[in-house]
Amino acid sequence: MAQGAGRKGLWGFYLVVSAVLFLSYNLLAFLFENLKEVVTQLISYTGEGSKFVFGALGDTANKNVGFVFATMVLPTIIFIASVFAILYYLGAMQVVVRFFAKLMSRFMGASGAESLSVAASIFMGQTEAPLTIRPFIEGMTMSELMTIMTAGMAHISGGIMAAYVLVAKVDVIHLLTAVIMTAPGAIMMAKMIVPETEKPATGADVEVVVPKQDVNVIDAAGRGAIEGLHLSLNVAGMLIAFIALVALINGVFGFVHGHAIWNGRAWFPNSLDQLLGWIFSPIAWAMGVSWKDSLTVGNLLGTRMVLNEFVAFAKLGEPGVGSSLDPRSFVIVTYALCGFANFSSIAIQIGGIGSLAPSRRGDLARLGMRAMLAGTLANFLTATIAGMLL
Length: 390
Fold this sequence. Notes:
The protein is an all-alpha fold. The chain has a domain at 2-226. The protein has helices at 2-22, 26-54, 69-72, 74-90, 92-108, 112-121, 142-154, 158-168, 172-193, 217-259, 272-286, 291-306, 309-316, 327-337, 343-356, 361-388, and strands spanning 261-262, 265-266. It has a two-stranded antiparallel sheet with strand order 1-2. A hairpin with a 2-residue loop joins strand 1 and strand 2 (265-266). It is globular.
């Protein structure tokens, strides 16, 4: 079994490196440039709906208004969710997911069910992707459960990706590359931490099954819009609460910092940002970030883990944060933040996946911290390799 875990590890590392290397070739560069144009165009279409509802506040081209998060970013989530619902109804996404599932099952020796869930995680959220393998979750081995949890932690959903482009001004090519490249890394990290010691019940021929929820394209578009609305409201509420809580914690830190004086020096960090920067800056530097940027990037990595990736991307987009980083550091942190691995995701997965397989809720809880660690390491691996090639 140890040899099997080592084989998966080597293949995972090989696939990550090979896939990133392939991006330097003209054919794939051309493909990703066209994907970038598609995503950029989709974002621009969102503006038409936003302008109709919000007027000038929803017009991203209106230089007199400036950037308004609620009317320019949240509508993008609604529209992209609607587009993805249509693509799933038409069966287009199932074809793409099936391709990636076959690839990972063939080269990494993963079971059919876990390969399918990992492939679905490239495009779907951490609670939606397991729906594709719902009939198999109850009978999965601990290692398989670890893999599907890690994949959820290591990826972001397609519906939220466009929002990161707007809020953090990141290149969509890097986001697309990150979610694809992280898939083999997620399997590799999961199998290294929880090796397979049992015999999986599924082979490589598991079919992509996404439950039909819609009667036609219009119904799919409407359902996707409603789901996108719920997601955007969750994002808005979460940002309001978490950013306010960070400000509260920073106020407490600042008070203690001002009073913890010894021999004329403060012996306590003046903010949560500074504390997280101290803790994670060596990791940022080890990934290839320049030392002058390591404190800023370390803070963003810590924010992603303690709070969530949306708050981290929002901070990256703040004036004087992302713009202060050198281009290489900016790209590395973009890859490193591109995942759901944080403490709140543990609860989300226990609740979401646990509702699909109630008898496995205890196993999900036992694997939660390890899955978050594996997902984080998968993101850091992809970021490190991307940094090596810049």
